[in-house]
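Folds vary. Our protein:
___
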Amino acid sequence: MNGNDRDFPKDFQDTGTGGRDERDATRTGPTAAGPMATGWVRPQRSAALATLLSMMPGLGHIYLGYYQQGFINIAVIAGCITALSSNDFEGLEPFIALGMAFYWMFNMMDANRRAHHFNRVAAGLGAEKFPDEFPLPKARSSMFNGILLIAVGLLFILDLNFDIPLDWLADWWPLVLVLFGARMVWNSRRKAG
């Protein structure tokens, strides 16, 4: 037993057979040549437990080993709760509350999905295969979204640092919907032509 083995439970320590015990030699299928050949057996993760732990945002992701995502989830929910409890966002409470509820539910479903993915990879089955009718979403970045985020950030800076009130947002917020609609029309016309 080397110095690193003392930190792991007995079931996961290297037995001198490349991380496999005698029972592994009789296994067939994807697990026999899967992760056990690497010298470290990854224990299965319970998708139900990950979902249950995610009732406290981020805890399910931390259970699965996705520490950064777990801390991001708790920070988003804590930010929403802070915004709801302050008087700075008067009139925007329904949007913040709906966004928080959506994100909370997404956090739980994502932990469940990641647990299933973790178990597939740990069993040596690889990633899921999608039918051709359901293409994977492509990574996108857009100038429009970047400009919109910069504009919103500048508005908050003006309000917080220069006491320029944002009262007019209560009357003009539907303009954001118009901008997103115009962007969708623009993109569909550009793809068609």
